[in-house]
Every structure is written in structure tokens, then in C-alpha cells.
From TrEMBL, chain A:
This is F-box domain-containing protein. It comes from Linnemannia gamsii. InterPro entries: LRR_dom_sf (IPR032675). It comes from the Eukaryota. Gene3D superfamilies: Ribonuclease Inhibitor (3.80.10.10). Residues 18-38 are annotated as: Disordered.
Automatic annotation (TrEMBL), chain B:
This is E3 ubiquitin ligase complex SCF subunit. Pathway: Protein modification; protein ubiquitination. SMART domains: Skp1 (SM00512). Keywords: Ubl conjugation pathway. Residues 109-156 form the SKP1 component dimerisation domain.
Length: 576, 159
């Protein structure tokens, strides 16, 4: 092999030198080779030295997509070795996909390279739900669609589980099991975890999507027992699956000293409700928890009390990110939210959509908003006056990067008041034009009270909705003015009914938002003009996605053509 | 508090300690050496390259120090390069790789990442032969080996 390499090198050298030799020179190639210096292939260049280091080549490879890695594999042996490691670092096995057999062939010998494995199995659905368009063709002889696909998927699933269960998987760090379709009792996720019990001993991140055949909370404890190095765990229970095993009740022999899961930092549980005792039993074991997400089933009874929150804060003092979504129609009161904010001193990110955000929480938020980086109060069930308080919070939210207040009915006049107060501070207080302002809109802070514009200049994502059905031009001017003061905005989502997106209402002020990648105003129910689209395309260099009210495919094609006219073919246009 | 760095070709560079400490290697050296004012020799870095590296560290002196565990997660890797960094990296290929080598030696991860992203952008969309030409690499595969590699890895070709 070594001599073959030498042969190839010398052959390639010779061919390069030949091409440089002047045409009238005769003689054999050897004398030519001696005459020319070998500086065309100087092996001491920085390029060669850098690319010779595997750690550098692997780092470069980590920024390449699969097709580029594939091309890179063929460059040279050294590239092949480095890029192959990168290629196999993170793998998605899509069991129902037609290309699956090809990767399955290579799987076993490359298993030890994999650090991040995702297994997607949507083949557990009913007949006709996979790649078949011929559901009505019952007499189809060839098994291309329908049952054929399901059977193939079944075989592939078995084969992959067989390969996994007989190999050493201790180097795997991240495992995502996405069984996709919840209806079947033979859940791939559970099947894999049971077959490979203990094999994933090095696992740090486990994501079990759509666990469908058990609602037993003890399963969580079982997982945590089996994978002691786990740093993050996400489990999503399907809401639709028939209950095959229900909760078996409290654990046998209440443990005096529950096991401490010292590595666990992030816990994400969706689809089950967690009554007080179950919840506390779980979090008591996770003293290093930093991030907790609980998304409950709709209309569930939580039954938490202030004491639940106090004990939670005592068990998990390091919580910095909290996401509680009780689901529609469930109970999670204002007092509980307020208490969470009071007791969790390290809290930086609070997502509490559909919770009862009320006066008590606002009182605490007033003091805490300054350290918050993320706030999600979407679809909170007590709108109205809270909208005003929310806007006032923004004057103190100097660290906020993410705000989702969609569904909170913000009074657009609040923005108007803010801006008008600023203008008044600069000029002499003159006569206000009262005729356009409704009665309740005239209630505003005294001119002597200091009014600052929104302090959340770090804001990157904003999602807002407005109380009134129509936001008029003058209101819009100040809303846009406020938004234009936020130079770091990357994503804007607006959820009103009639929100003008045109130059008369001050859209041009948003020209300052050079980092904008997403503009989403799809529910504005008003078609947007060509000028505006072209302006957006030219003014926002980083724009990636436009989500607008566009009726029909032809209109969407038209919008895309306007964007193409200004050289912005790369912008994705989404419509409802 | 200034620190003196000496390039391989014996040129002195006076930089603020805060700027120099963007290099973890230098940071550790300074901690070991303590209060001493003696210049720090960098035998692997020439003056031309050190100038560029210092320029980068000056511009990014106020960036938050990256937490190692966050940046090592392969799924979180972003391919974006800031505008300033993009202009900074508009140098000839030799200098690009000199910067990468220096960032690797001096342990300046953000600079190493920017350099590697830049090289990745050069590789993207190129055939194997074009990549070889770009970096002066010899093809040491036989045609049979090439065919086998293509076959084994075709699952990666268009995903």
C-alpha cells in the first residue's frame, strides 16, 4: 500500500511536470523531473500543515453538510478518515424511508463512531398511512404501497433493533427516539429501550418522543435509574393513544433516601399532569436541575399549592429556565406563578403560556423583569389590564431577549401614549388631540412621571397581539417606532386582525432592523402590495422567512417573483 | 496592564492583558508566571500572522467567554459568520491557514471556528477534484477504492 502511494505520488508529479515542460524539449521524463524543482507540491505550506492535522480537518468537516462531506471523502485517504468520523458523528435512521436499507448496511461497522443517534419510525401507523397513494386500489399486486410499506418498515425496525442490541453502544451520547405515530401498541421507543437495556451506558441526552403505550410515571424513574449519567431527558406522552398501562400508583416501599440524579440538568415532560406528590418525588431526586419543562394535558387538575412551589424551590435551587404549560382549561393560578418568581432566585427564563397571569405575578415581575432573558405569557387567561402592565414591564426589561405575548390583548394606545409622552418631554406640553382617543385611552401616566421607551434593546424575538380589531394608522406609527428602537430584533410575529403593513403606517421605520430574519404577520387579513414586498427584500439583508396573508398559490408565486426581481430568491414565503 | 508578545521573527507586540487573554494558552502562561513583566515568546507564530490574530482579539475583546460544553454539541453548531469576521478573513489562502494554525496553537477557539467555517465555505459545492486543486492535495486512491467509497457512502450523497 505504501509503495502504491509512492507510485501514485510520483506519477502525479511526473504528469504535472510534463505539462509544464516546453514542447520542443525531447528526452525521457526522468531528466525533466530532475530539472524542475518540486515547489508545485511544497509540502511545508500552511495549507498542507493545517489540513494534515486531523483535529483541524474534523473541525472543518463539522461545518459541512452531508453532500459536501461525501465529496470530501473522495479527496484523499487523510480526508476520508477525518470526514468519515464527522459523517457518522450524528446520524438519523429514518426507518420508513426508501433509502434506509443503504445506511443500514453500513450501520454496524460504523456504530462506534456515532455520538448522536436519532431513530425515526413512522411505520407503526395503519395501512395506507405510509407511502401509499393508492389506498383505494385493493387489488394491487405489487406491494409498493399500503401493507407492503408497513411490513417493510416492520422488518427494518426489527433489523435495526437487532443491530443495536448486539453491539457496544457505550460511546453514544445523544439518543432521540421519535416513533411518530402513536396509535400502535408496539411502540418503537419502548421496544428499543427495553431491547438495549443498559447498552447506552454513556448516554447524556435522551429524547423519547411520543411514548404511547404507558402512562406509568414510574417509567421515568426507570429511565433515570438505567442511565445515571443523563444530563437531559425529554419525554413526550401521546395524548391520543389508548391507555395500555395506567399509573400503577405510588412506588413500592417509599424510599427513605431517594437516589440523587446529580448529573441531570434538563428535564422536559409533556403530555402528563404531575400532581403534587408525584412531582415532588421526582424533583427531590434532581438537585442540580437547571431547566424544567412541564406541559400538561388539557383540562387537567394540577392541585399544586404554595407549599408545592416552596418545596420545589428548596429541592432545585439552581433552576434558571422554567416552562409550565398547563394546557387549555387547566388550573395554574396567579398566586402560584408569583410564588415561583419569588422563590426561584436564579430564574432567567420563564415560559408560562395559558397560565393565570394576574396582579400578584405582575407585582413580583416588576422587580424581577430586569434579570429575565425570556418571557412567554402567550394566551394567558386574564387579558385586558395586564396588557398595560406588560408594556410597562418592557421599560425595565433590559436583559430580555425573547418575548411572547401573543394572545395577550395589548392595547395599541399604550404604545401611542409612550411615544407621545416622549415627544412631550422634548417640546412644551401642548394641547393633546383628544378627538381620536377613546375614553379609556385618556387614562395615562401623569406627564411629570418619567416615561422611558422600551428598555429591552437586547430583544431578539417578539410575538405580540392587539386588543382591538383594527389598529389604525396613528397607533401603528408608534408601534413601528417602538419596534424600530430594538436593533437586535431577529424575529417579529404579529397576531392582530387588521394590522396595516404599509408605508403610510410607518413600516419604513423598521429599516433599522438589519438583523431581521423572520417577519410573520400572516393573520393580518390584508393583502400586501408589491412595493412593500420589494422593500422588505431589499431592506432586510438577513431575511429568511416572510409569513403573510396570501390567498392562493398564484398569489404566492407572485410574491416570490417580486422577491426574485430584487434578487431575493432565497427568502422563503409562507402562507397559511 | 500591557503584556509583551514576541513573534517567531523576534518582533515585539504590546497588547492589553485582557486582549492577550483571549488566548487560553497565553492566559494560562500568565497565571503560571504571575506578576512578572517578561515578554512571552511565541515561537510558532510569525509577526504577520500575530498582527492579524491581535487584530481579531482586539475587536472581540468584550465578547463573552464561550462555555466549552455549549460549543462542543455538534447539533448546536451554527454556520453564520459575522460581517466583520467575514471581512477579516478575506485574506489569501496561505494566510487563512496560518491564522487557523495560530488559533489552534494559541487556543483561541472562536478564531479557530471562524477560520474553519471559512474553509468549509470554500469546500462547499466543490467536487473532489476541485477540492484537491484548491488545496494542492494528492489523490492517493485507486479507482477501485474510489468506487467502493462512493458505494458505501451514497446514503450521504444527497441528504
Amino acid at each position: 500500500m505504501f509503495s502504491r502511494a509512492l507510485y501514485l505520488v510520483s506519477r502525479s508529479l511526473a504528469s504535472q511536470l510534463h505539462s509544464r515542460a516546453p514542447p520542443d524539449r525531447g528526452g525521457d521524463s526522468d531528466s525533466d523531473a530532475d530539472a524542475e524543482p518540486f515547489n508545485t507540491l511544497d509540502l511545508n505550506t500552511a495549507t498542507t500543515r493545517a489540513l494534515a492535522l486531523p483535529e483541524i480537518l474534523e473541525r472543518i468537516g463539522s461545518y459541512l453538510d452531508r453532500p459536501s462531506l461525501f465529496n470530501g471523502l473522495l479527496v484523499s485517504r487523510h480526508f476520508y478518515e477525518s470526514f468519515l468520523s464527522v459523517l457518522w458523528l450524528s446520524i438519523q435512521l429514518r426507518i420508513a424511508h426508501p433509502s434506509f436499507p443503504r445506511i443500514l448496511e453500513q450501520l454496524e461497522k460504523n456504530l462506534s463512531r456515532i455520538r448522536d443517534l436519532t431513530i425515526e419510525d413512522i411505520s407503526t401507523g395503519n395501512v395506507g398511512q405510509t407511502d401509499s397513494d393508492e389506498d383505494d386500489d385493493e387489488d394491487s399486486v405489487d406491494d409498493v404501497g399500503g401493507r407492503g410499506a408497513v411490513f417493510r418498515g416492520y422488518l427494518h425496525r426489527l433489523r435495526s433493533i437487532e443491530i443495536l442490541s448486539r453491539n457496544d453502544l457505550s460511546l453514544l451520547q445523544c439518543l432521540t427516539l421519535d416513533c411518530g405515530f402513536p396509535a400502535n401498541s408496539a411502540s418503537t421507543s419502548v421496544h428499543i429501550l427495553n431491547s438495549c437495556q443498559g447498552k447506552f451506558s454513556g448516554l447524556k441526552h435522551l429524547d423519547v418522543g411520543l411514548l404511547s403505550n404507558t402512562r406509568d410515571r414510574r417509567y421515568i424513574h426507570q429511565i433515570l435509574d438505567t442511565y445515571p449519567l443523563l444530563e437531559s431527558l425529554r419525554v413526550v406522552w401521546s395524548a391520543q393513544s389508548p391507555l395500555l398501562t395506567e399509573d400503577q400508583g405510588p412506588l413500592e416501599q417509599e424510599r427513605q433516601h431517594p437516589t440523587k440524579r446529580l448529573s441531570l440538568r434538563r428535564l422536559h415532560l409533556t403530555g402528563l399532569q404531575w400532581p403534587e406528590q408525584e412531582f415532588l418525588r421526582l424533583v427531590q431526586q434532581c438537585p442540580q436541575l437547571e431547566e424544567l419543562t412541564i406541559r400538561g394535558a388539557s383540562k387537567a387538575r394540577w392541585g399544586w399549592t404554595i407549599s408545592t412551589v416552596d418545596r420545589f424551590a428548596e429541592f432545585c435551587p439552581h433552576i434558571s429556565r422554567l416552562h409550565i404549560d398547563p394546557g387549555y382549561g387547566s388550573d395554574f393560578e396567579d398566586a402560584l406563578l408569583a410564588r415561583l418568581l419569588e422563590t426561584l432566585s436564579g430564574l432567567r427564563s420563564l415560559h408560562v403560556p395559558r397560565c393565570d397571569l394576574g396582579p400578584e405575578t405582575f407585582k413580583v415581575l416588576k422587580d424581577r423583569i430586569g434579570q429575565m432573558e425570556e418571557l412567554n405569557v402567550a394566551f394567558t387567561r386574564k387579558p385586558g389590564v395586564d396588557g398595560r402592565k406588560l408594556v410597562q414591564l418592557m421599560t425595565r426589561a433590559r436583559n430580555l431577549r425573547y418575548l411572547d405575548a401573543s394572545g395577550v390583548s395589548l392595547d395599541p394606545w399604550l404604545f401611542y401614549v409612550t411615544q407621545q409622552q416622549e415627544e412631550q418631554q422634548q417640546q412644551e406640553p401642548g394641547q393633546d388631540a383628544h378627538e381620536d382617543i377613546p375614553e379609556w385611552g385618556r387614562i395615562r401616566p401623569q406627564p411629570s412621571a418619567p416615561v422611558t421607551s422600551w428598555a429591552c434593546r437586547k430583544l431578539e424575538v417578539i410575538s405580540i397581539g392587539f386588543a382591538t380589531l383594527h389598529v389604525n394608522t396613528r397607533q401603528c406609527q408608534s408601534i413601528y417606532a417602538n419596534l424600530s428602537n430594538l436593533p437586535n430584533l431577529r424575529r417579529i410575529h404579529i397576531l392582530p386582525n387588521h394590522f396595516p403593513i404599509n408605508f403610510e403606517s410607518g413600516l419604513a421605520q423598521l429599516a433599522l432592523l438589519r438583523r431581521l430574519t423572520h417577519f410573520d404577520a400572516h393573520s393580518t387579513e390584508k393583502a400586501i402590495s408589491e412595493d412593500v414586498i420589494k422593500w422588505m427584500g431589499t431592506t432586510w439583508p438577513k431575511l429568511q422567512v416572510l409569513r403573510l396573508y396570501i390567498d392562493g398559490k398564484e398569489k404566492r408565486a407572485l410574491v416570490k417573483s417580486w422577491l426574485r426581481d430584487v434578487g431575493r430568491d432565497d427568502v422563503r414565503v409562507e402562507a397559511d | 496592564m500591557p503584556v509583551i508578545l514576541v513573534s517567531s521573527d523576534n518582533q515585539d507586540f504590546k497588547v492589553d492583558k485582557e486582549v492577550a487573554e483571549r488566548s487560553i494558552l497565553i492566559k494560562n502562561m500568565l497565571e503560571d508566571v504571575g506578576e512578572s513583566d517578561s515578554p512571552i515568546p511565541l515561537p510558532n507564530v510569525t509577526a504577520a500572522v500575530l498582527t492579524k490574530v491581535i487584530e481579531y482579539c482586539e475587536h472581540h475583546r468584550n465578547d463573552p467567554v464561550q462555555v466549552p460544553e455549549e460549543t462542543d454539541d455538534p447539533r448546536k453548531r451554527s454556520n453564520d459568520i459575522e460581517e466583520w469576521d467575514m471581512k477579516f478573513m478575506q485574506v489569501d489562502q496561505e494566510m487563512l491557514f496560518e491564522i487557523i494554525l495560530a488559533a489552534n496553537y494559541l487556543d483561541i477557539k472562536p478564531l479557530l471556528d471562524v477560520g474553519c467555517k471559512t474553509v468549509a465555505n470554500i469546500i462547499k459545492g466543490k467536487t473532489p477534484e476541485e477540492i484537491r486543486k484548491a488545496f494542492n492535495i494528492v489523490n492517493d486512491f485507486t479507482p477501485e477504492e474510489e468506487a467502493q467509497i462512493k458505494k458505501e457512502n451514497e446514503w450521504a450523497e444527497d441528504r
